[in-house]
Design brief:
Elements: H1 9-20, H2 25-53, H3 63-69, H4 73-101, H5 105-132
Helix pairs in contact: 2-4, 4-5
């Protein structure tokens, strides 16, 4: 190589080394969004069909309906999957928007912390409600209780 001529191979080698150590986090997030979107469509439309079309429809939804539904482990798992997938899906989408539009690192950090805190509160509270819900509370009006409470 002649004196004063820049070595063009050195930057390419450095780029190749850097590129090979990168993770595919954003790719996995993109794939997750597509897969979870399809699963959420099935879960949400199944939920809407059972709650609005079967039986008396929307007029049947009350404490007894939810209490009777959540006595079944099938519906507990169904609603839990819907909650968790919707929250992870939505949080990942908002995280992407924050990354795209928040210009300062401090702003990005504060917004993501608020997002993750909201995610944690909703998921923990929702999970606790689904699994600790008592369809037969002591002292409740018997006309409001589901039929499973009288057996």
């Amino acid at each position: 190589m002649a004196a004063g001529t820049p070595d063009l191979a050195a930057p390419r080698e450095a780029y190749r080394r850097k590129k090979s150590t990168r993770t595919n986090y954003e790719l996995y997030g993109w794939v997750f969004m597509r897969a979870s979107g399809v699963v959420l469509l099935v879960l949400i439309f199944g939920h809407l069909f059972v709650n609005l079309m079967v039986g008396d429809g929307v007029h049947a939804i009350d404490f007894a309906f939810v209490g009777g539904k959540w006595t079944s482990p099938f519906w507990q798992v169904w609603d839990l999957l819907m909650l968790w997938l919707a929250m992870i899906h939505g949080t990942n989408g908002v995280r992407t928007i924050i990354n795209d539009y928040a210009e300062r690192d401090t702003t990005r950090l504060v917004l993501k912390l608020a997002l993750y805190l909201a995610f944690t509160i909703v998921v923990v509270a929702g999970t606790l409600v689904i699994f600790t819900f008592s369809p037969c509370p002591v002292g409740a009006d018997p006309s409001l209780l589901p039929s499973v409470c009288f057996s």
